[in-house]
Design goal:
mainly beta
């Protein structure tokens, strides 16, 4: 089916709901003001592929910028408790070639660590999310409003002195890990929605919990 680029909407649409495919997750446990994750999987190339990036880190301020293959991203939703932070970003334009790319995260302060995860979104009607949610209490349901369905991404960060397994209800968990030698645990997942839903991200760590979710149509 031919996709027609819609002027002013920043994405193309075929009339079908947006699709989502997980790429990869990666981490860096070093202290830095910027992080670069090279050869990071971003999914199958497409003329209408946009990349969502989840950022998990421990820092005194939010990240100020994210790029994928040099393409700038817009921050979609974020959550913070103490220094534990979660953000979702999306590329400002389609990344049409390549299955891997450098994902770069810039902060205005020195962070203790950083982890990222990527998803490829296709068939977007807009890069603006249909709905976004964020919570700072563990296992709190996030009510997602997407009557026409779409592509859901959820990510969470929390404090954990050792690896503490986590679960996601309402989406398929794609990664669940502890940043080496740090007390920062991160996990995330996705779902192909057909309508409104609820999603929860539950951890067994020791506190300072943040989670974000966004859906694109």
């Amino acid at each position: 089916m031919l996709l027609q680029q819609l002027i002013g909407f920043g994405a193309a649409s075929s009339g079908a709901p947006a699709t989502v495919a997980f790429g990869a997750a990666a981490e860096n446990g070093g202290n830095a003001t910027s992080y670069s994750f090279t050869s990071h999987a971003i999914g199958t190339a497409s003329a209408t592929r946009y990349i969502v990036v989840a950022c998990h880190y421990k820092a005194t301020a939010y990240a100020t910028g994210v790029t994928v293959a040099g393409t700038a991203c817009t921050m979609v939703v974020e959550a913070q408790v103490s220094n534990y932070r979660t953000q979702l970003w999306i590329t400002n334009s389609a990344i049409t070639t390549g299955t891997t790319a450098t994902v770069a995260v810039t902060l205005g302060v020195t962070a203790d660590n950083c982890a990222v995860a990527t998803w490829a979104l296709d068939r977007l009607t807009s890069t603006t999310a249909v709905d976004t949610e964020s919570v700072t209490t563990d296992n709190t349901a996030m009510s997602i409003v997407a009557p026409n369905g779409g592509a859901l991404v959820v990510a969470a960060t929390h404090r954990a002195s050792s690896f503490a397994s986590s679960t996601i209800t309402g989406a398929t968990e794609r990664y669940d890990d502890q940043i080496a030698a740090e007390d920062c645990h991160y996990f995330g997942g996705d779902a192909q929605l057909t309508g409104d839903t609820t999603v929860t991200a539950d951890h067994s760590g020791i506190g300072f919990y943040t989670a974000c979710a966004a859906v694109w149509g």
